[in-house]
Known about the structure:
This protein is α/β, with parallel strands linked by helices. It is built from nine helices and five strands; from the N terminus they run βαβαααβαβαααβα.
Amino acid sequence: MTRIVAVVGMPGSGKGVLSRIAIDAGMRVFAMGDIVRSALLQAGLEETPENVGATALSIRTRHGEAIVAERMLERLSDQAAPLIIIEGVRQPEEMEVFRNAFGTDFSILAILSNEATRVERVIARGRGEDGDAETFRVRESRESAWGLPDLIADADHSLHNDTDLATFESRCAAWLGAA
């Protein structure tokens, strides 16, 4: 039986760190952002904060709020592993798709971190979708409007990322070992 864990958290909270630790431990990790980046590439757009945000909004407007999760389900259909991580679920509609597909084998892990720390992390990491503090606030607002704070509040489990990287990595490894 495969257990599915959706990892939720605001931008810069540490979802990617948990995913990296899971991958390093040989676990299967699928990122919801890969679905949006795939749509971005198909549209021939450069990965900028504006283009990523516009693409995420556009595919949801054209295909429905659950489209990213529905496309992710296609990627998961032939996967078998004791634990699969889905990184970056952002909307209740997406969560409902996974709950319906996986039932009791599905749970939510929230990564929690304060806003000031997250802004610093996002600016420092410099991914194509990141940008500056103002871009962060736009993204934070968009993802909040999608219902991400509700998903975080309803999580089955949580990890706090309020300290140095090595400590958080240890927390992630311990959680994954117990999962």
